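Hi F.,

I've been meaning to write this up properly since the lab meeting, where we talked about keeping a consistent format for the predictions we share between groups. The idea is simple: the sequence comes first, exactly as it goes in, then the structure tokens exactly as they come out, then a line or two of notes. No screenshots and no reformatting. I'm using this chain as the first example so we have something concrete to point to.
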Amino acid sequence: MGKPLVAILIGVLSMTSQVEAKRVVTELRLEDGKTVENTIPEPVLDGSRIKPLTILPLRQAFPSERGWERSEPRVASGLEGLLIGSTPKVAPTLDFGALYSAALGQQAKALGLTLDDGGWTIGGTLEDLWVDTWSNGWNVVYYTGLVVTLEITAPDGARSSQTLRLFGVHMRFSKIPGASVARLLLEGAQETLARLNTTLLKAPPLPAARRMMDEIDAKGMTDREFMAHAVGLSGDPAAIAVFLRVLDRSKKEDERGVAIEALARIGDPVVVAPLIARNPTEGKDARWFILKAMGYIGTPEANKFVKNAVLVDDDVKCRTLAEAIRGAGFAR
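Output, unedited:
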């Protein structure tokens, strides 16, 4: 790409950023965050085997008008690191906590869990969320994050709390202001429920999860990314071997990234060693997902890997994710 074209591109992006900044977002629709990849095609958890869930309204720990733009943008050298776009202004009445609560209810049903009284009660506080927008000159990529503290009451009355730090990345898929945030809330709700199911709820996977993983194993990941998404959320440990085989077979880094993210959602420590072993030969996008997996699994070996990545990974987005996993960086 020649320098004049680069200059024109930067100018157009700058003007677009200024226009976007003048908009005021008064509402967000969760539907605007739905894509083929994050739509669960059929339930993958057997909610009939556990008590139902009651989702309470989650509080919001930050003012809505702060918006979702991260506070300390970093720009790598050259067009590859061009940080573009200025997030629209956000009305103080926009309730991210209520949206996240609604997403939890929607996605619980999609996963196969039952909503009713007399079982598990889930509430808490949405501590933070952010969207970090980058361009490589022809695509716009959003790196997103969410921090939530959950307060859980079990059917027997026992209480516990968990703080989850959830991360995502996706390319531009909509021109609707705030669509990237809606996607963050939807996928964040999915991952929240999946991680709660692994640690507390214990709803077993349905046969649909096994059918999808068998198809991926037999026919490959291409055009089956949505299946990998759903299988990862099921937490089925039988999928671990399938996704590790995808890593060995696939020559496409984006497909390997999908497989690694599914392993992150399953969260089994058995994948820590093989993922760390792959890291030196993977591209920066796959390394980003390896870091996500290490953050979600959180064993001492995984934590050491994340700490080291802050210092040695040569990609700024990987280093930034490592900082965010450790509680620095994005969170405000």
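Notes:
Residues 5-21, 71-85 have pLDDT under 50 and may be disordered.
Residues 207-325 form a domain with the Leucine-rich Repeat Variant fold (CATH 1.25.10.10).

If this format works for you, I'll send the rest the same way.

G.
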